[in-house]
């Protein structure tokens, strides 16, 4: 079994080092990770310049001058043999609800999934990896359960959020759906020392849908949250409506 490990916090982050070590239980581990922090990179690819790869630590670590998606993309399209599993993280901070749209951690897993490889994103709630050993142990158990339980070879994309607490304090593991956040807080405006305004994006919104069954509910009650994700953004319920409005020639035949 060959496992590709990536993240968005950069290859030096304690989270990816702990995750890579935890994955050694299942086979050969290769890390392909960004050279610096790309949190919030979402699924961005670098198309306006070439990427460089620094190859260190035998065949185990490749440091790439690109985004999380670049890392997995390059790994799967020529740098490595196709792995059996892609894991991403362990991110410093939650990726729940709407966060999944912006997350580089989730994006690295999405890239693996788009290439047909089972992919799992791991994030730890709160900043600072205070209970990183516990999170790495959880990652190991989630992967073990997935490998033991999957019914066929069809790849899944799982988003895992782990409360920042010791293993003994965790209540268990729960399958969940994504919750929803309120809109993000206001942008923070400051004056640059050179006299023009500068802006810092405000914090993510507080949970708006944190009902039982959501990732927010599970983690706030001490459970590890495991959400299966899909990529198709089509709003199927609205397709007939839009067809009714739009279908016809571009010019003429106005309703
Ligand atoms: Mn991050």
Please characterize this protein's 3D structure.
The protein is globular. With 255 residues, the protein is of the alpha/beta class. The N and C termini lie far apart (59 Å). The longest helix has 18 residues. It binds manganese (II) ion. The site of manganese (II) ion has 7 residues, from strand 5 and helix 4.
Secondary structure elements and pairings:
Blueprint (H helix, E strand, L loop, with lengths): L1 E5 L7 H10 L4 E7 L18 E4 L4 E4 L3 H12 L5 E8 L6 H4 L1 H11 L4 E6 L7 H18 L7 E6 L9 E4 L4 E2 L6 E4 L5 E4 L6 E3 L5 H6 L2 E6 L10 H8 L9
Parallel strand pairs: 1-2, 1-5, 2-4, 5-6, 6-7, 8-13
Antiparallel strand pairs: 3-4, 7-13, 9-12, 10-11
Helix pairs in contact: 1-5, 2-4
Bound molecules: manganese (II) ion.
Features:
single chain, 255 residues, alpha/beta, nine-stranded mixed sheet, two-stranded antiparallel sheet, 7 helices, 13 strands, 25% strand, binds manganese (II) ion
Please give a quick description of this structure.
By secondary structure, the chain is of the alpha/beta class. 27% of the residues lie in helices and 25% in strands.
Radius of gyration (Å): 20 Å
Order of helices and strands: EHEEEHEHHEHEEEEEEHEH
Please provide the count of β strands.
13
Tell me the strand order in the biggest sheet. 3-4-2-1-5-6-7-13-8
Tell me, briefly, the overall form: globular
Mean pLDDT metric = 96
Major sheet: 9 strands, mixed
Poorly predicted segments: none
Approximately what portion of the residues adopt beta-strand conformation?
15-25%
* Number of helices, counting only DSSP H or I runs of 4 residues or more: 7
Distance between the termini: 59 Å
Measured as a percent range, the helix fraction is: 25-40%
- Are any ligands bound, and if so which? manganese (II) ion
> Structural class, from helix and strand content?
alpha/beta
């Amino acid at each position: 079994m060959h496992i590709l490990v990536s993240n968005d916090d950069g290859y030096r982050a304690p989270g990816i080092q702990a995750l890579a070590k935890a994955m050694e239980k299942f086979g050969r581990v290769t890390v392909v990770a960004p050279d610096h922090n790309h949190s919030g990179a979402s699924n961005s690819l670098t198309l306006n310049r070439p990427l460089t790869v620094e190859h260190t630590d035998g065949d185990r670590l490749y440091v790439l001058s690109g985004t999380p998606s670049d890392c997995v993309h390059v790994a799967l399209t020529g740098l490595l043999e196709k792995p059996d599993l892609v894991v991403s993280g362990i991110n410093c901070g939650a990726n729940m609800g709407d966060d999944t749209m912006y997350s580089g951690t989730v994006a690295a897993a999405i890239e693996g999934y788009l290439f047909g490889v089972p992919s799992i994103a791991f994030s730890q709630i709160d900043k600072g990896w205070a209970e990183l050993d516990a999170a790495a142990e959880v990652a190991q158990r989630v992967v073990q359960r997935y490998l033991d339980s999957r019914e066929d070879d069809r790849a899944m994309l799982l988003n895992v959020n782990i409360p920042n607490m010791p293993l003994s304090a965790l209540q268990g593991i729960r399958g969940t759906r994504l919750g929803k956040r309120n809109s993000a807080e206001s942008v923070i405006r400051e004056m640059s020392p050179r006299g023009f305004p500068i802006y810092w994006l405000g914090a993510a919104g507080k949970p708006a849908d944190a009902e039982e069954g959501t990732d927010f509910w599970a983690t706030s009650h001490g459970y590890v949250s495991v959400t299966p994700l899909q990529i198709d953004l089509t709003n199927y319920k609205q397709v007939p409506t839009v067809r009714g409005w739009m279908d016809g020639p571009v010019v003429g035949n106005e309703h």
